[in-house]
Specification:
Length: 249
């Protein structure tokens, strides 16, 4: 069994790779930072191979699939992504465009291409790493929340299509709350509530996709937050999100 993992050089992606190897899988590690990938490969040994790729570029996503499509990959983990914080009028447009390319376009391209391969074999798993943010509007992190909304929505639609076609291919969206990774450093924010560790997140994500869950939400607190959203007006929820995000700055 072989899995392809983007964003494998750190955080959840790295710990998903470790967890998969412990479960008997081989892994293809994909990220921009070659040195980080090689460090992880040395740790995982013969069960890992590295591919340096910047998935924020469409041509590199296409090339990644072309190079690896014949390796009998059975799981795709779309984990590459990042966020930035600030008022929408003040955040960097260039950085936001890079975020959209990474968090949305790359997920879209790789999901489509590998899903087509999986459909032909009638087996395989796709794990799209989203966020609990994917169910909300997020003032002060407007673009990041919007990208995760896209991932959640896309995954949900594909899930239903696969179900209607009787396919054995499974697709899931992993939607955690705060996770202790490099995300906050990159986004220039700090935790406003206690995070779960990355290993715990990785284990929950893999258990969920193997069980065929659509949305994998690893803590009771985040599950409750999603449920409460159904009971409150949208404006009130968005006000709450602003207050929550403001504490991170």
């Amino acid at each position: 069994m072989k899995a392809l993992i983007t964003g494998a050089s750190s955080g959840i992606g790295r710990d998903i790779a470790r967890a998969l190897v412990c479960r008997g899988w081989d892994v293809i590690l994909v990220a921009r930072r070659a040195e980080r990938l090689m460090e992880l490969k040395e740790e995982l040994g013969k069960h890992a191979q590295c591919v340096r790729c910047d998935v924020s570029h469409t041509d590199e996503c296409m090339k990644l699939h072309e190079v690896l499509k014949d390796q009998d990959i059975e799981m795709l983990v779309n984990c590459a992504g990042f966020g930035i914080c600030g008022f929408f009028t003040e955040t960097s447009l260039d950085k936001e465009m890079e975020m959209i390319e990474t968090n949305i376009r790359a997920v879209h391209i790789l999901t489509k291409l590998f899903l087509q391969d999986f459909m032909l074999k009638n087996k395989g798993y796709i794990l799209n790493v989203a966020s609990i943010a994917g169910f909300f509007s997020g003032p002060l992190m407007a673009t990041y929340y919007a990208t995760k909304n896209y991932v959640v929505s896309l995954t949900g639609a594909i899930y239903e299509e696969l179900k209607r076609r009787g396919s054995n291919v499974k697709i899931s969206a992993f939607c955690p709350g705060p996770v202790d990774t490099e995300f906050n450093k990159v986004a220039s924010v700090k935790f406003s509530s206690a995070p779960i560790d990355s290993k715990t997140a990785a284990a929950a994500a893999l258990d969920g996709v193997m069980q065929g869950k659509l949305y994998i939400i690893p803590t009771v607190k985040m599950k409750t937050l999603k449920f409460v959203k159904r009971l409150m007006p949208d404006k009130a929820i968005t006000h709450f999100c602003y207050t929550f995000q403001k504490k991170k700055r």
